[in-house]
């Protein structure tokens, strides 16, 4: 264990950069387009109300692409550290791809998914959320419901798993088993409030070390987490390929790829019991 460091509470924030190293493209890499679509077409409430089929075709393709990717060494290093140091690490992620969950077969580091998750859907009427990793359309946009295996069976809650119900459809789009109303992806779209903010605030206030991995530092409220943790006395660390706007609030900046630097940094901390 590094002398003078308090490892009793390590809070990790991950962004698109950690997933990019698994081959999942980020919005900012796409020149303002998201897999060929403008944000307004596929990632807003208004888009869903205007053309739910286009939105479901887009998110079906995102589910397929996420399922084709695999957790990388950075995802695995976080899980290994959490397993070796029980109760020490908390994980907040801006990512919706499920790679953190798939890296964590032992379920020792359940992420707080502030932007939702691709392997869940939500009833537009009552808000009930269900595990749902189906792609309702294929890569070409054809109606072809099929499971993508975005998360392990052991990580699904069987009574809540959507397709344990006889799912109904209207115009090829899924209806919720609770209210028989349209299902939407359980994703925080642009203009919506991120999830779990009170829980995240509690974690930030208790953090002794705050570690940001692969974040751009421009998407709020996550971009402000470093300042909050710093103000509450945490040591702030950032692992990223380039500097982020919050440089003045970062105690230790580690430049490089997450797959190389995350394990290296965590190894440098040693063990809480070491």
Summarize the structure.
The protein is an alpha/beta fold. Helix content is 28%, strand content 21%.
What is the topology?
Blueprint: E1 10-14, H1 16-20, H2 39-42, H3 45-50, H4 52-68, H5 73-84, E2 89-93, H6 99-103, E3 112-113, E4 116-123, E5 129-131, E6 134-137, E7 143-147, E8 168-170, E9 173-175, E10 183-187, H7 197-206, E11 209-213, H8 225-231, E12 235-240, E13 252-255, H9 258-269
Parallel strand pairs: 1-2, 1-11, 2-3, 11-12, 12-13
Antiparallel strand pairs: 4-5, 4-10, 6-7, 8-9
Summed up, the helix count is 9
* Count of distinct strands: 13
Q: Kindly report the average pLDDT value.
A: 90
For the record, the CATH class of the largest domain is Alpha Beta
> Superfamily at the CATH H level of the largest domain?
TPP-binding domain
**CATH architecture call of the largest domain:** 3-Layer(aba) Sandwich
Biggest β-sheet strands, sense, barrel: 6 strands, parallel
Rg over CA atoms, rounded to whole Å, is: 19 Å
Instruction: Please bin the fraction of helical residues.
Output: 25-40%
Which structural class do the helices and strands define? alpha/beta
What key phrases describe this protein's structure?
274 residues; alpha/beta; Rossmann fold; SIR2/SIRT2 'Small Domain'; 2 domains; six-stranded parallel beta sheet; 9 helices
Describe what this molecule looks like in 3D:
- There is one protein chain.
- α5 (73-84) runs parallel beside α9 (258-269).
- The strands form four sheets. The chain has a six-stranded parallel beta sheet, with helices on both faces. A three-stranded antiparallel beta sheet has the order 5-4-10.
- β6 and β7 form a beta hairpin.
- The chain starts with 9 loop residues before the first strand and ends in a 5-residue tail after the last helix.
- The mean pLDDT is 90.
- Helix content is 28%, strand content 21%.
- The protein is built from nine helices and 13 strands.
- The chain is of the alpha/beta class and 274 residues long.
- It folds into two domains: 1-24 and 71-115 and 194-274, TPP-binding domain (Rossmann fold, 3-Layer(aba) Sandwich), CATH 3.40.50.1220; 26-68 and 117-187, SIR2/SIRT2 'Small Domain', CATH 3.30.1600.
- It has helices at residues 16-20, 39-42, 45-50, 52-68, 73-84, 99-103, 197-206, 225-231, 258-269, and strands at residues 10-14, 89-93, 112-113, 116-123, 129-131, 134-137, 143-147, 168-170, 173-175, 183-187, 209-213, 235-240, 252-255.
